[in-house]
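thought: fold this chain, then report.
action: predict
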Amino acid sequence: MVMGTCAAGKDDWRKRIDAANNYNYNYMKALDVFREVLRFLKDDVLKTINVHPEGGKFTASDFTWVLNVPAVWKDSAEGFMVEAAIQAGLVTEDTKDKLMLVLESEAALTWCLKLPSDGFFTQNHSRDSQDPSPGPTDAGTSCNDPPGSQVAVHFEKEPEETKVLLETQNRDGKRYLVVDCGDETIDFTVLEVLEGGTLKKLQEASREDLGGRTVDRKFKQFLREIFSDGVWKEYEENFSSEVQKMMYDFIRLKQVDEDVQISCSDNLREQAQKKKEIETFFVSVEGASWDEGVIRITREKLRSFFDYRLQGITKSLREELQKVLNIGSIVLVGGFAESQILRQHITDQFGPQYKVLCPLRPQEAVLKGAVELGRNPKLVSSQKKGPACLNWFS
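observation:
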């Protein structure tokens, strides 16, 4: 299970997480939130597995549990996660050896190193390039897929085969800068591939307010500008679930680098028409137009939602590349790396000096790599090894 960000102090479990809507100033302790999320996932996976009784009844103690954590986490934060896992019933004090904490960057690079060349997006130095989409027969599923559409991820290679594959790729001694592009943060980790394919972390850093949700907020701000005179504010207050759907639709739309269109609900249209004809809301708006029930947004306007954050990512990347010498490749992973605009920008800025790589399913790289490390912990010398592996991605 991947956790995005969490305070890393020694008293993490005493810190609080406020309710998203700030309703009545409700909050929970961070430890309570993590514990209940882990408990839910544990119970769900055991329920799913035990639906098929031919293998016998399984309990939490039958598995090694792999939890993904950010590379910037310190020992105290990892201790926080272990405590949450114990309280959730994944392991006990006596069975903590069946719990693995895997760095997200190490997991992602482990998966990317075993991919063939056609397992990555193809990038040109022209912004007009078009990237191939994952085919319908791809194993696994994107976490951006609608609820209920997820399918099981199957892994065919045995642990030793993975190790042999790494060894035969002749990658020993190469250094990679893994850029984990998340919702709120961008995490930078420099990893070196040692003899035999073992990974060694050399440097890590995290930058807040550069992730994908910053683009989402720009889009919502644009909708607020279009539907002025309090229309959008009233719509958010009365139809919050429809607003969430529009934002979910935009998550998919921001993956492309072209003109896009997003459906306008009947409720938003009716709300706007109480003020004036809906077409007139778009008269003075640059980069958007109304077209029979949909809002059309130009490619240039879509790119403008990214501009400020792309500048920040570029600046941070340059700083990290100056800290460690002999980096050969930049590896983009995480949900925000699904964006063609982001990928092409990084390629344009750094392609002449570095090889820029991004797997076709960048959001799944951490999940699949964590499974590989669970099956073959020797790829990261600090990890523990267990008889079986379950990994959950959140």
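thought: worth noting. The mean pLDDT is 80.
final: tokens above.
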